Amino acid sequence: AQSVAQPEDQVNVAEGNPLTVKCTYSVSGNPYLFWYVQYPNRGLQFLLKYITGDNLVKGSYGFEAEFNKSQTSFHLKKPSALVSDSALYFCAVRDIRAAGNKLTFGGGTRVLVKP
Amino acid sequence: DGGITQSPKYLFRKEGQNVTLSCEQNLNHDAMYWYRQDPGQGLRLIYYSQIVNDFQKGDIAEGYSVSREKKESFPLTVTSAQKNPTAFYLCASSGLQGASTDTQYFGPGTRLTVL
């Protein structure tokens, strides 16, 4: 079985400050990990993914995430947040040994960036 | 939202009615997916299809049906057997027969409300 936890329902940050959105996962094998962002009444937009290789993954809009196998975490980060980063963020995991191409999503973290 | 379209954007249904949500993609992707999004629960997989004329149940398939007669189309029918159908429905697609490393790309969603 595969699962994802996003421990914070909401993260508040001032514009220009660093932004971190936490994600931990559980899989029986090795994970593939994904981050998506959702703006109100819109579909999910892909930000970045970890498949293999360098533990630091760089993605769209200045976001990056660090894969930490020992802590089973894949936290999303941005060095300097913008008001336009205010949105709902989802972490997702796929066990590479699982059948099909099923993604399991976390419950989402709402980010509010204040000017 | 890329090359994935969903229609309609908003849909109202009376109790006891079946309704069909449309999902079309022009990305030449083999695999397509339907998710349901409820507040605070993230996304849950309803059905997925890795190739034309084949599909599998996801985690919450009861009360839903799908077909995959064409590569670019994956319509979802919400039947009267679905007890609580009010939700935001998201369609996604990914590349080569849903290879596990592939990114899923999402459409803009359909918001279904039961009156």
Q: Keyphrases for this structure?
A:
heterodimer; A: 115 residues; mainly beta; 4-stranded antiparallel sheet; 0% helix; 52% strand; B: 115 residues; 11 strands
Task: Describe the structure in your own words.
The complex is a heterodimer of chains A (115) and B (115). By secondary structure, chain A is mostly beta strands. Chain A is built from no helices and twelve strands. Helix content of chain B is 0%, strand content 49%. Chain B is built from no helices and eleven strands. In chain B, the strands form two sheets. In chain B, strands 2, 4, 5, 6, 9, 10 and 11 form a seven-stranded mixed β-sheet that branches. A four-stranded antiparallel β-sheet of chain B has the order 1-3-8-7, with no helix packed on it. The chains are: A mainly beta (115), B mainly beta (115). Chains A and B meet through strand 5 and strand 6 of A and strand 5, strand 9 and strand 10 of B.
Quick take:
The complex is a heterodimer of chains A (115) and B (115). Chain A has 115 residues and is mainly β. Chain A has strands at residues 3-5, 10-14, 19-21, 24-26, 31-38, 44-50, 56-58, 64-68, 73-78, 87-95, 104-105, 109-114.
